[in-house]
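Hey L., structure's done. Input below.
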Amino acid sequence: MYKRFILLVSILTLSTLSIISIASNRAEFEQWMKQETSHFQEYRDKRDKEFTGFLKNQWKEMQTFQGMVRDKTPKPARIPRAPKKPFTEVEPVKPVTPTPIDKTPVKIIPPTTPEPVIISVPTIKPVPTPVKIIPAPLVKKIKGSKIHLTFYGQALDFYYDPKLKVSLQRPINAKAMSRIWSEMSKADYEGLLKQINAQRKPLILNDWGFALLTNAIAQKVHPGSKNDQSVFTWYLMTKAGYQARIAYDQNYVYLLMPSRQQLFAAPYFTFDKIRYYALSFDGIKQKPGKIFTYDGHYPGAQKRLDMSLSHAFNTGRKQQDRFLNFTYKGKTHRINVGYDKETIAYLKTYPQMDITLYFNSELNQATANPLLKQLKPLVEGKSEEEAVNLILRFVQTAFKYKTDEQQFGIENYLFPEETLHYPYSDCEDRSVFFAWIIHHLLGLQVVGLDYPGHISAAVYFNKNVNGDSVNFNGKRFVITDPTYINANAGMAMPAYKNTKPGVIRVLN
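Output:
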């Protein structure tokens, strides 16, 4: 009994000592966390203080360069039609005339038609249920103002610290820029950034979408003042880790950011061999001339915009239907396509980019799947060549042709969903759309072809298909021109038949 009592007292003593130790360790841990948080806050404040001082003095006058032009060669105003004579799939072998020396008769072997490869259409995935957009989480201790906005059909709420609402004073100069950074740095910007980041995944936002959303918030905070909107967007994009700069002239403020991809028709200037583009978020080009900007960047802000569109943005879909008709081998087909007007509005804000990004972009599945389902029964059971020819005829004849200059007044490459929306399309629009169908419907490898003043496509077949072709990565890709009306696989447009094109890789 006595031994049990001693054991019980020992256990209680050890337990008490453990509790005291844990409490002591927890107190030490909390004190350490408090110190680290304080140190971080001091570092952040020091960083902002130093940058505020930097902005007072490090401005220089710069001359912006006008945006680069992708291809100065004019596109054909009218496109030709392939000759009515049917295309010979297998060219006959010409007889060989014996030489006078060789008296042995030559046996003529008649041409043989290779056994066609029957296309196997991949299973079309069902349209997924749209991701539900949840309200951005409230950040504790924010005594802020509420913003409600509709972002391409998606209703979103955000809360922000009113101290972030700082207006740019006039005259616009280095002193005004330094002041506005200093004032905004006193506010709780992190809470708003957390809310914006929380919407990246459900909205499927790439970097451009993130910048658009940030600017949409800026428009709510500063309605009617584009200069204040540009400054607000600059501040938050910089705090989000992007290489954003601000520039100004006598009247206007410009947001300048570099991109991982080359942009066209956008004014830019160069620092440390990096191009900073003057960006707008409404699709309206800016034309700054001589501007003042600073040579440096905020510590830790190193990211460039990634403009690739490998996943479609999750908009609040607003469907618009369009009926497309085409005839193949005497039979007329009617295709009903439903595209998203919200996506069209989103894509309209995009700066013009290298053609490679258009060839490697994605459609919204709610647009893509119904289109593929209607095309699937038209190609099932056909050879690869015949299936490709049918898709060629669809793209060649279901859409009306106009150059970008004729339709928009400027060069304006279209994403696949935009080709479904606009009344006209030209060669690069059709080639991008055709390549997307061939890859997703037939599962065949396809590349883009870049001629001076013309964009086309080519397909790799699993069996030999005669006609014009290009070699790429050790494979023979047969030319398939979706702009050359009634042309089949292997028929290059006559004007480019003897021109060697550049090859645009399409990631499969």
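Residues 59-67+129-294 form one domain. The CA atoms of residues 48 and 185 lie 7 Å apart.

-- N.
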